[in-house]
Task: structure prediction
Amino acid sequence: MRTGPAEVRAALAEAHRGEWGVVFGTIVRLTGDWELAEDCAQEAFARALPAWERDGVPRKPGAWLVTAARRRALDVLRRQTTERGKLAEVAAAEAGREPPLPGDERLRLVFACCHPALPLESRVALTLRAVGGLTTREIARAFLVGENTVSQRILRAKRKIAAAGIPYRVPPPGARAERLDGVLAVIYLVFTEGYAPSDGATVRDSLAEEAVRLARLVAADAPKEPEARGLLALLLLQHSRRAARLDEDGGLVTLQHQDRTRWDRALITEGAALSREAATAGGPYALQAAIAAQHALAPAAASTDWAAIVALYDRLLALRTNPVVALNRAVALGMRDGPQAQLDAVDALGAFKELTGNHVLPAVRADALRRLGRTCEAAETYRTATALAPNGAIAREYTLRAVECGLRR
Result:
């Protein structure tokens, strides 16, 4: 049955989101050629639009696209007499016409893209391109770098994979746990750049959503890995607040002042359940998810279980010293024990060079001073935070707080 153009484009867009990695990965697995895989995947999607408009959307769009890409690879290899071996492999796969298991294909692709032999920025770019199907322009826009920079990162990564013989597979059980850490780190970095970008921009929902999709993929294919579930829980719980994070002017709204009725309860329910499953292992992502769950499940900011949050931060810091985690603990400590405890904890962090120039450090200190009634010092400290703010929205928030402190003098 034929389908209208609008429905076809919607179906193709949905297939691109869900099947790009399968199509791309299938050709990589069969040919070992990442450039050919990208060309064939793009060709398959391009051919799908007129074909589906003419014949209707197939019952299994992914299988149609995989078949189209394999046939394209077969056509290319027929013209390359030096690739007779690969030609036979692709021809045999085409004859079988049995589509790969989507999760298995994407998981192999994720592990290849996140191989530790590749620089971190190349892992991120290649993962978003090969697994997520983002264009070079979209990746460049997300990370605020030039398209040529992204193209070069991806090209160098592909060349490194070929030169180093990086295998296209999920690592064997003995090496999987170690390699999984690198995969989760890339996904978390992608989410962070969408949820709380390093350049200070407010949010980039599409990037955060792609990270959630990747985290779902890895968690589904590694059901016995608690940290995979912990990361997914963390991302779901944080992403559940996306609708309440910005005010009408595009400025960030702090957790304490967010309208909790705008939080996504379905994501909170799912994330909290995953967090409970992962909590017993006590890994870094699982502990961060448990902290996020405490915030998400509290009916109001005032009823948050700050004692439980401080205890979770203590467990997190026992795993690894992290100045940012210690700063977050100082805030939680201040909510549990009062502003003087917060001020003492913040002042103890001054030795960490990683926090030098971080706008959050003076902002947290100013908050403690304000609550102690030391408004002159608080106003001045807020001005310091304003000078370090990464964007105008955050700077305006600190300026407003400084003015409020000044009015109380």
